[in-house]
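2.7 Reproducibility. Because tokenized structures are sensitive to small changes in the input, we list the exact sequence used for Sister chromatid cohesion protein DCC1, including any N-terminal residues retained from the expression construct. No trimming or masking was applied before prediction.
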Amino acid sequence: MNLFLETSYDEHDFFRIVEVSSDFAATTMCHIANDVDTQLILCSQEKTFSVRKVEFSNSLLVTRKRRRDDGTTILERQSRMFEVSTCNPRSIEAYYVLRMNFCTLTDIESNSVNTSGMLLSSLVTLSSCSFSELRVELLRSGAIICSGRVRLLHPSVINQVVDTVFLYLGTSQIQIDQKSMIVNWKEVEKHCVPSMFPQVVLDAVRAILCDGHFERCEFASLSLERCLKFAAAYALESMSEPSTTFLGDAAHPLCWVGFSDFYEKWKSHIPQTVLDTLDHEMLLDVLRGNVLFNPTESISPQKIAWCESFSLPRKLEERVRQLFSLSGNGKWSSRDLRPFVDPILDFGHSFETSIGKVCKDHRVPGKPVVYSLHA
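Resulting structure tokens (single pass, no recycling of outputs):
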């Protein structure tokens, strides 16, 4: 789909010419969304599209007869062409706001009206993405409706459910699939005490911890990888101390802790039946894209810090440069860097091509590609 813009054709008559497929025109209605990076974003009910300027060898000629004093005819040549392509949803701003006031079990069980949180309509206005994608992003983040407003479950509530899940896995005879790392959620939920976890909490946690059709209990599959990530985040949070290192424009604190201390504490929360199916490298793979290692190019890093993708700059070059400033040795392997870069790449843009604009690669046979910044 191509979008053609021409605003200088006439002094008073401004117009836009949009070229789309007949199927798209028949089924899609778009609105223009605000974007913090000043990029033009179009949103339908189901998809989000980015608009970028492209250079083509072809031109679009627009003519309009208008008499001048000398009797000549004006001929205008289309000078700007824009391409519209599907992109990843941009719901980070809504997530920032919701994290300011988490929802606890006390809030859920209270009968009093609570004005914390936000109306769904306000979140739609804040987000540069389609409503359908925003809904899924909110569910995946642990969003619930409390007193008519959208709020995020407090991490401690989710961690209680994760502990219950691990307790069940540690005492049951369930077989864990090492390759997919999934188990049936319906079986797990039976062992969650209803008096301790209201159904609204279990539904929200299911969206966070499950793959597949997570909105239907009978079809949802518990992802051990998601459980392990949440246990790691909670272990790091309990060890972290105030830090003067910040990420991105929103000043997210970055708290470093000793890797060996974290690693032992993290594993102490994981049942032995699960640990028996995982080796050291598989555990590190679970962490990649959610933590920073220091130094980055090391099998056994000395320090570690929790770093979610949303807390980093969204522009590729700014994000990569900040990651390298925190690497400790000026290098990043492809397996560690890719999880932080892929979430901000639009569809059709490869990691290798995009990262090559900012970094140079160093290749050694049999080892992951290592990147350093261009001089």
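The first strand starts at residue 2 and ends at 6.
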